[in-house]
Design goal:
Length: about 260
């Protein structure tokens, strides 16, 4: 019988990769007051650069009317356990766009590339919904007006001004006023915004959106502490009756003493 070789069982040590990772806080750009918008794990800080995240305007400001607007940020710098981002795009939710489009209406999409005064190349995609169906020549005229209007306005704005105008709806309102000379419009929205080239933000850039205080916090600030009342409150009615009866008896005794 051949001798059987004893096989040695080797156990491989499995390394836990999650223990080697650390959690980094993701902060919004300076235009959003560098608020914390999330966290992400990573074993190497350099691997965080280039990661993207999406948040709604409601998450940043607490405004429920802006839940359909999504903002996209990209990590460009890591300091300690803090990851700083830059604005790279804006988008509307698909369900909100579907609610705007109805039968017997025309939805006109357009794409405009414009450069801001601080060097950002921005691609803006407006969307126009008319009251009724229109002809192709009218759609071409609407696109021409949109192109000229956006080139003029964005050239005099910084990237923070563009984002503020898109979020507040001022850019869409200006486009609606300028295109009404062609055909009555039902709604104009900035469907999507993309940053194609990142420029240099202005040094005096300020926060464009501040977080709103919740209703509970506001009510807590408005309520003032009540001053202590000087009136004596008697909880038991029977005690109050006894007090009044004793006062009346004492008064009768005093009057009797005076008469005597």
């Amino acid at each position: 019988m051949p001798a059987t070789k004893k096989t040695k069982t080797t156990t491989r040590k499995v390394k836990d990769r999650w223990r080697a990772k650390e959690w980094y806080k993701i902060h919004a750009p300076k235009m959003f007051n560098e608020m914390q918008i999330g966290e992400t794990p990573s074993g190497d800080p350099s691997s965080l650069v280039g990661r993207t995240t999406e948040v709604t305007v409601h998450d940043l400001t607490g405004d429920f009317s802006k839940m359909h607007i999504k903002l996209k940020f990209k990590v460009n710098d890591v300091t300690g356990l803090d990851a700083h981002t830059v604005f790279v795009g804006q988008d509307l939710t698909s369900d909100y766009i579907r609610r705007l489009t109805r039968r017997k209406r025309t939805k006109t999409d357009h794409v405009v590339d414009a450069r801001t005064k601080d060097g950002f190349l921005v691609r803006v995609k407006p969307m126009c919904v008319t009251e009724k169906r229109i002809q192709a020549s009218q759609e071409t005229a609407i696109r021409t007006i949109m192109t000229s209007h956006l080139h003029k306005t964005i050239a005099d704005m910084s990237i923070s001004d563009v984002v503020k105008s898109v979020i507040s709806g001022d850019m869409a309102k200006d486009l609606s006023r300028s295109t009404k000379i062609i055909v009555p419009t039902k709604r104009i929205e900035i469907r999507r915004t993309e940053v194609l080239e990142i420029g240099t933000p202005l040094p005096d850039e300020k926060a464009i959106v501040e977080p709103q205080a919740s209703e509970e916090e506001g009510s807590a600030q408005e309520v003032k502490p009540e001053e202590p009342s000087k009136q004596v409150v008697v909880e038991d009615v029977s005690e109050a009756g006894e007090i009044e009866a004793s006062e009346s008896v004492e008064g009768e005794e005093l009057t009797k003493d005076k008469e005597e």
